[in-house]
Design brief:
With 343 residues, the protein is of the alpha/beta class. Helix content is 36%, strand content 15%. It is globular, with a radius of gyration of 19 Å.
Amino acid sequence: MTPTIPTPTRHDWSQGEVQALLALPFIDLLLAAQRAHRTHHDPNTVQMSTLLSIKTGACPEDCAYCPQSVRYDTGVEAEALMQVEAVREAAVRAKAAGATRFCMGAAYRSPKARELKVIARMIGEVRALGLESCATLGMLTPDQAGELKAAGLDYYNHNLDTSAEFYGSIISTRTYEDRLKTLAAVREAGLKVCCGGIIGMGESAGDRAQLLRTLANLPQHPESVPINQLVKVAGTPLADAAAVDPFDFVRIVAVARILMPASHVRLSAGREEMSDELQALCFMAGANSIFYGEKLLTTGNPDVERDRTLFARLGLVPEIPRAGQPAIAAAPARGEPAAAAAH
């Protein structure tokens, strides 16, 4: 008999309940995720975001997965904070390629005041184009979160990455509590939250359940939940990490959908390594957001034409922009400018 999954939005999931969901027969789990998805979303639409690295490399943190850490030799060249006009031009290209949200990522532990003032101008340019704006800049104080809100920022991304228990095996330069404090500051400022994790860093099934449980038990669910598959980069400590079982990855997407039914669940980093069939299973499991363009900060991403072709094969369409935003333009053909995004 197919299990009945509770439909009310909850913030009190137990570890055992989440592990039990992850252990369901695969087809039963997908059916439950589809039911949750269709209750809260149009099942055939996908929200399109583009991510641009506005300041690349030389990050002082030691995140074991990150090619931008100054501690690892990964071939990533450090680049200073981009000029505002260059960011605007990238946002124009992203919009033309079909994105409705433009995300700006900077390799900071936390931004300095002078940097935040420049980023505030970038946010204004992105918003003026009719795009939603998102930023990921590291740790924030309440005052910094308020400054970004005043600049017009819509979303702030700050991932938990993994479970609290496994976190110390991946990062030592900031604590799990530091991440939770930033999320609280972002919420208090009135910003929407983009927060998820990375699968494939050597974590256990219990760690994966604990990550999902932590996200679902936040006082308010993140509006966007990126599910990243580790991109193994030569020179990082996780370069030789074991591959993730594709069905296990789909299970994470499905349980995220069930636990946070109204959130956008984003199929994020690692998509370049995924077959069309695996991506289709992820969409069936409730993923309804992607990063769109050629790069994610410093690693590859499926190009625009491949995504457009896959959407046509699956009957998926881009999510309609919120009220007041312009309609989505068609994606460019190969050879035309795509989003200048990266990560």
